[in-house]
Amino acid sequence: MKEKIIAKASELFLKLGFKSVTMDDIAGEMCISKKTIYKYFCNKEVLIEESTSMVHKQVHEVIDTIVAKDYNAIHENFEIRESFRDMFKNNSDTSPIYQLKKHYPEIYQNILSYEIDQCSQYFRENIEKGMREKLYREELNIDVYVKFYYTLIFHINENTVSEREAQKIELEALEYHTRAMATEKGILELEKQLKKITT
């Protein structure tokens, strides 16, 4: 039952926002009493912590699944972006990450600390792969580009209220990041990926 509550809560938090979803809403959606939820979670904050942990795990499973498909480095980034767009599609106009930072800053900081580590590792592997594939320039300072990109991405998510707007700016950031590293061959692949989005 505990896992079912976490799964339902995660779904509602992402769809409607961390602030607006109440314990009553979760109980109502699951056709259980609020008392049942409190049997497993002493308050909403604890449930949010467990839910964000589960979402974090799902996010990295999505990344691992896409990486395993062995697309080229640029295609891989676009596939991951597409999966996240579907995963974080919500009915609330407010970005879940923005809400988490604003209303539950402590939980947000905890997530951020290990999220930055894991994302940095993924960005690094992607850049190394792109260099091997001659899509990114050979002389890149990988550490600097990893730092540039995660600073951009986290800044967008922390400071953009609207999820739709955040995703739009993230696409611009991905293009900017890729163009900054790309060889001529990489630019052609980037244009191909961008074209797929607009068609």
From TrEMBL:
Listed InterPro entries: Homeodomain-like_sf (IPR009057), HTH-type_Tx_Regulator (IPR050624), HTH_TetR (IPR001647)
Protein name: TetR family transcriptional regulator
Domain of life: Bacteria
Keywords tagged on the record: DNA-binding
HTH tetR-type domain sequence ranges: 1-59
Residue ranges the UniProt entry marks as DNA-binding: 22-41
GO MF annotation terms: DNA binding
Native source organism of the sequence: Flavobacterium hibernum
Coiled coil (residue ranges): none
A Pfam cross-reference name: TetR_N
PANTHER family: ACREF/ENVCD OPERON REPRESSOR-RELATED, ACREF_ENVCD OPERON REPRESSOR-RELATED
